[in-house]
């Protein structure tokens, strides 16, 4: 896992700038993502970026719509299937089912020649090389980058910003978040963790919460800063660590500031992570989310080790999850 985290910036740079052909937005009225776990978090990150740049609705469909149910009408839709292995039966059936129901299907996969790829109209390779640790890291960051490459092709005006962001993320290699020691110490004291973000930062929060659960066996939940001030705020009256993932987009600052102030007011320990704290500036929101994950993954790794867990092989998990 440590080696794979270290490879992530270079993976991002390659995947974000790869050439893309074979698909356009002509006739497309909506985009649907189909993914599970970490790939679904990457899809969430991409959905905000794609909607902002294209003006098209983009949302997630559960794979069970196709793997258990009879599918839904997909004419005029682009289905984006994200799967690191490309081997999960439900995602294979979803790619096939979406195409049979009228969608154009694009796949973001890491494993070349996968079954998902065989059912897709076009494929964007993550190109991360073998990922041996069960918790996905470099392939998650690479999935975000591959989605940005697709968006660069669909919206050419986005391409220069994506390329500039790829260079900035590549330069993060070997850098740590300056609060790493304090953050790990706080995680070791925590029984419950809220991970909060907004826009693309919300998808990053989902991924970090998942990693804390699967790698450290910590109870962690992800919330949008726009929702957490309702019922979930009450849980802060119990011991609760709050991690805020701030992509530094101007549009999300008021929401994140309000959430931070409210949690501090009830006495919760709060850490706010920003890419600029590690020297990464000028990023697109999706690239900022990827940078935050690169900076956060070592926190998960260090915490898992300190708690006596094997971060590469969590006891109850396998690399390819077979679900329906």
Write the layout of secondary structure elements.
Elements: H1 2-16, E1 30-34, H2 37-54, E2 58-60, H3 64-67, E3 77-83, H4 89-100, E4 104-109, H5 115-119, E5 122-125, H6 138-154, H7 159-170, H8 180-189, E6 192-197, H9 200-216, E7 219-224, E8 241-245, H10 253-265, E9 270-273, H11 285-306
Parallel strand pairs: 1-2, 1-3, 3-4, 4-5, 6-7, 6-8, 8-9
Helix pairs in contact: 1-6, 1-7, 1-11, 2-6, 2-9, 6-7, 6-11, 7-11, 8-11, 9-11
How would you concisely characterize the structure shown here?
GO terms for molecular function: carbohydrate derivative binding; transaminase activity. With 324 residues, the chain is an alpha/beta fold.
Report low-confidence residues grouped into runs of 5 or more: none
* Helix content range: 40-55%
Give the count of helical stretches.
Answer: 11
Query: Beta-strand level of the residues, as a percent range?
Result: 5-15%
Order of helical and strand elements: HEHEHEHEHEHHHEHEEHEH
State the secondary-structure class. alpha/beta
| Average residue pLDDT | 93
The rounded Rg comes to 19 Å
The structural domain count equals: 2
Organism: Neotabrizicola shimadae
Domain SIS: 21-178, 183-324
GO biological process, one term: carbohydrate derivative metabolic process
Protein name: SIS domain-containing protein
Provide structural commentary:
This protein has a five-stranded parallel β-sheet. The chain has a four-stranded parallel β-sheet with strand order 7-6-8-9, with helices on both faces. The chain folds into two domains: 2-170, Glucose-6-phosphate isomerase like protein, domain 1 (Rossmann fold, 3-Layer(aba) Sandwich), CATH 3.40.50; 180-306, 3-Layer(aba) Sandwich (Rossmann fold). With 324 residues, it is of the alpha/beta class. The chain has eleven helices and nine strands. α5 links the parallel β4 and β5 (122-125).
